[in-house]
Amino acid sequence: MNKMSARQNLSKGQKAAAWFNSGGNVKNMNEPIGEAACPWWNCCYGLMEANRYGDAHPSDWVVDHKIPLAKGGTNNQCNLQAMHNACNNEKGDS
Ligand SMILES: [Zn+2]
Question: What angle do CA 19, 92, 61 make, to 5 degrees?
Fold first, then answer.
């Protein structure tokens, strides 16, 4: 297995920032709400639902690192975005 599980060890604030960075709304800057479009560059733009974090579901999402940790990216909120788990697996090096 070369991928971490869908459940990630990130804070509520980091998850909310990732959701926000993908165009989603957040409540109190702390809780993802509503819907957002998957930003993966491979023409996905599919629906993601805030309450599907970590679910195995077509509208699920996980936190993606824009610049992968393996390539020097950080857990800084600016480097996080929400993305489908399946798209994130395809992208690799999250
Ligand atoms: Zn996607």
Answer: 25
